[in-house]
Design goal:
The chain has helices at about 10-15, 25-30, 85-90, 115-120, 125-150, 155-165, 185-190, 195-205, 220-230; strands at about 35-40, 45, 55-60, 60-65, 75-80, 85, 100, 105-110, 175-180, 210-215, 215-220. The chain has nine helices and eleven strands. The strands form three sheets. It has a four-stranded antiparallel sheet. Strands 2-7-4-5 form a four-stranded antiparallel sheet. With about 230 residues, the protein is of the alpha+beta class.
């Protein structure tokens, strides 16, 4: 039985970074794409590896993290489908500052740097989109610094839970969410220890704001949880 081939032009054209590009531009990028399948727990690259392009995640989940000499790690980003990563390091022509590991079985596209630089030189529209994507990434990092500096541990957890709630519609009543990865990874992403995250979940449960069952979280009253986050 023949394996279904990926529709790479369609995948690329749906990315926020490339959604306004024309067919000719997408065709240039398609020639630079190589599929990479990653098993859960497998390393995509290590800290210090050379960056020869960037990645687009088709499906699965990837963890970007800093290692430490103590054996701990600091999770910088949890990458989901239709997200890209590695663009900034590609432009700097420096070694990767983080490692990338599959949190689930994943399929990625690696886009080589050569055709990207060629498009940047020839097409101002493409250059603007790349700059916009990198600017959004920088804005997210600034928000992280603000969160870790000015918000309490409990507020970080509440803010994270609210990110998974509907942003529109009625704000009353309960809502069920499923944590996208392990509590240990989420704790590291929020700059907390796993013990602190468990304690906060326990406190929120004791205050009848949430109910926890493994990775399943029931937010009992979204409005009250939002008030707690203020």
């Amino acid at each position: 039985m023949q394996e279904n081939r990926l529709d790479i032009p369609q995948i690329l054209s749906r990315l926020p970074l490339f959604q306004e590009l024309g067919p000719d531009q997408i065709a240039v990028l398609e020639k630079a794409c190589h599929e990479r399948r990653l098993s859960k727990g497998e390393m995509l690259f290590q800290k210090g590896d050379p960056a020869k392009g960037f990645f687009v995640l088709v499906y699965g989940q990837i963890k970007l993290a800093f290692p430490s000499s103590q054996g701990n790690e600091k999770v910088v980003q949890i990458v989901g489908p239709r997200q890209s990563f590695g663009e900034a390091v590609m432009f700097l022509n420096k070694p990767c500052p983080v490692f990338a590991e599959g949190l689930e079985d994943s399929l990625l596209l690696h886009i080589g740097s050569g055709p990207v630089f060629e498009l940047l030189e020839k097409d101002p529209t493409f250059a603007r989109h790349m700059l916009a994507g990198l600017s959004m990434r920088l804005h997210s990092l600034v928000q992280d610094v603000e969160t870790y500096s000015l918000r309490s541990s409990a507020q970080r957890v509440v803010g994270y839970l609210l990110q998974h709630c509907p942003q529109t519609g009625p704000c009353k009543g309960s809502f069920n969410i499923s944590l996208p990865t392990s509590k240990q990874v989420i704790a590291s992403r929020l700059n907390l220890t796993p013990e602190t995250l468990s304690r906060i979940f326990h406190d929120l449960s004791a205050n009848a704001l949430i109910a926890v069952s493994g990775k399943q979280i029931t937010i009992k009253d979204i409005a009250k949880l939002r008030e707690f986050d203020l």
